[in-house]
Every structure is written in structure tokens, then in C-alpha cells.
Design brief:
6-stranded mixed beta sheet, 13 strands, 41% helix
Length: 341
């Protein structure tokens, strides 16, 4: 073989090998993207520049991949502000794709409302420097994040593959901040957990409440303190929001005053419903403890019709009894003891 023919053959082989490598990499990339839980995320526009991805009103299951949470984003003209990152790495990655389908603006700030796993385990998909939370939320994720993730693996299976805890490095303080054309107000509240962030967009009137508000679904209470939670709802109600994005359940708009019923009603069904549920739960557990019912008897208490109509109310009531009833019993014993002497 002469040198010219050799060189041409060598070039062809190298070119063919290069194309083969590129082909194999393309196939591998396709398989990798297909190898994962498909959340079928579809952003819903609810106000100017504002989109929400609404989760299912269910318990965590393998079928739903833990997608029971609402996440959201605001396109400001100077970058995207994200509210919560979702329950898994797959969710976070698909959330970013959903944002990219709406805007080419970069993601500049990701706000984590609290330290429950369905709200922060998508953090891996976002640049570390964009992740923000209240200081106690940051410490809660650092302390309990791995245990939460392991539990969600057990409940949701392969959808959690490759999910690891990423702790937000930046603490955010309550107060106003602006990004692009949007001015926001951060509220540092508590009750659902020890640190619950709410975000109010002052221009659009959209209030992102995290899990301080549920709509059509019974609230979760693993770290709840009901009295502070009720106080937080009062503060949220006083903001006069036009639209509320709850942590779980459908987005709700403020009702006109003519439709609000009794004067004490909230203009937001979601706030009124959450408040009514918490008051009922508190009164029910207190009365059961004062009557001397043990936990198994408290678990067997019937749910009133308005509670039964809420999604997963039976399972959440059982969980609430296990979380909150020991303290109710202790309060009843302390009260009885003080009156005896």
C-alpha cells in the first residue's frame, strides 16, 4: 500500500471511529434520559410571569414518585425565581426542563420553603449558589435530610434513584427583595415546622405559602405546633393576596366579599379550610385526652363529613394522632393534676 492510500485509509478509519463513538454516546445519552421516572411536568400559568406545577393530592407512592407537592417559578426579566425544588433528583431535572420550555432566562434564586423532603430533594438539579432557605430550615436539612431521603426511598421506590441531599448554603432573611421587574416579600413564619417561609409577589398579588396552607387535602403534621400555625395563617390572611399557591392542592383565588359568607371567613378557601381543619384537630385531640381515651381509641374516632371530603383525611388523621396525641395526653394530665391540688 502506497503512503497516499495509507493516509486516506487511516483518515477514513479515524473518521468512522469518531462517528461510531458519537453514535454510541448519543444512544447512551438517550437511554440515560429514558432511564428514570417521568413526572410529566406541565407548567400552568396562573399570573403574569408566574407558573405552577401542581402535584397530586395523594400520599407518597411508587406510582406517583412522591410528586404530591406544588412547585413554582417566576420569570422576572432578570432571571427566574424558583419556589421549592421537588421530591427527587429526577423531579428537579425535569423541573429545570419545564422552566426552559417557558424561558431562556437563568435561574438566579431557588427558595426552599421548609425542610420536608418533597420540597427540597430536587436541589441537586440546581446550582448550589442559587439555593436559599431560612436558617432553621438549613440546619434541619443538614440534620435530618438523609433520614428523610431514606424514608422517601422506601415509600417512592425507583423515582428516588440517584437522589442525594444538597443543603442550601445561603440563609435568607425576612423582608423585601427585587429581581428584575418583580418585588417580593419573604415572610419567616412557623407552625407547620419550626421554620416556614412564605413568599409574596407584591406586583402580581401571588402568595406562595409552602405547607402552611393546604387546599382540598388534609394537612400533614409530623412537626406541627398548631397554635403557632394558626397565628401564621392569620398573618398570611392579612396580606390580602389575590392568588394563593398552597404547598399541596389546587391554586386558589380570593373570593369577592359578597361570596365570603360570615364576616370572619377568609377570602381564600384554602386558608379557611386549613384553619378549620387545625382547629377541629386540636379540639378533637384535646377532648379525647380529657376523656381519658387511649391512643387506639382516639384513632377510632369518626371523622365529620367536612373532614372526610378532604383528600387522604383518614390516613393524615391517623398520622396526626400518632404525632400529637402524646402531648395532648400530657396536657390533660397536667391540667387534671393542677386542679386536684
Amino acid at each position: 500500500m502506497n503512503s497516499t492510500l495509507y493516509k486516506r485509509t487511516h483518515v477514513l478509519l479515524r473518521s468512522g471511529l469518531r462517528h461510531l463513538i458519537l453514535f454510541v454516546l448519543a444512544i447512551a445519552t438517550t437511554l440515560a434520559s429514558a432511564d428514570g421516572f417521568d413526572y410529566a411536568l406541565k407548567p400552568q400559568r396562573i399570573a403574569d410571569d408566574t407558573w405552577v406545577l401542581v402535584g397530586r393530592s395523594e400520599d407518597f407512592t411508587i406510582a406517583n414518585g412522591a410528586n404530591i407537592v406544588n412547585t413554582a417559578f417566576v420569570v422576572t426579566g432578570a432571571g427566574v425565581v424558583v419556589i421549592d425544588s421537588g421530591p427527587s433528583r429526577y423531579y428537579g431535572e425535569q423541573f429545570r426542563q419545564a422552566i426552559a420550555s417557558v424561558t431562556a432566562e437563568p435561574i438566579v434564586k431557588v427558595l426552599i420553603t421548609h425542610y420536608h423532603p418533597d420540597h427540597f430533594l430536587g436541589n441537586q438539579a440546581f446550582a448550589l449558589e442559587t439555593l436559599h432557605a431560612l436558617p432553621d430550615t438549613i440546619s434541619g436539612i443538614a440534620r435530618d435530610g438523609n433520614a428523610f431521603a431514606e424514608n422517601l426511598y422506601r415509600l417512592s421506590g425507583d423515582a428516588m434513584h440517584g437522589t442525594e441531599v444538597r443543603v442550601p448554603p445561603k440563609a435568607i432573611a425576612p423582608g423585601p427583595f427585587s429581581v428584575g421587574t418583580h418585588r417580593f416579600e419573604v415572610l419567616a413564619l412557623d407552625g407547620h415546622t419550626g421554620a416556614d417561609l412564605a413568599l409574596f409577589d407584591l406586583g402580581t398579588g401571588v402568595l406562595f405559602t409552602g405547607d402552611l396552607v393546604f387546599n382540598g387535602r388534609a394537612p400533614t403534621t409530623p412537626h406541627a405546633r398548631i397554635e403557632p400555625w394558626l397565628a401564621s395563617l392569620e398573618r398570611l390572611d392579612a396580606l390580602g393576596a389575590r392568588i394563593i399557591v398552597p404547598g399541596h392542592g389546587a391554586v386558589s383565588e380570593a373570593m369577592p366579599a359578597s361570596q365570603q359568607g360570615k364576616p370572619a371567613s377568609s377570602p381564600h378557601v384554602s386558608i379557611a379550610q386549613t384553619r378549620d381543619y387545625l382547629r377541629w384537630l386540636n379540639a378533637t385531640l384535646k377532648e379525647a385526652a380529657e376523656q381519658g381515651l387511649d391512643m387506639s381509641e382516639a384513632l377510632a374516632l369518626p371523622l365529620p363529613p367536612q373532614i372526610q371530603r378532604m383528600a387522604v383525611s383518614a390516613s393524615e388523621f391517623r398520622r396526626s394522632v400518632s404525632h400529637l396525641y402524646p402531648a395532648a395526653e400530657q396536657d390533660a394530665l397536667t391540667h387534671a393534676h393542677s386542679h386536684r391540688y
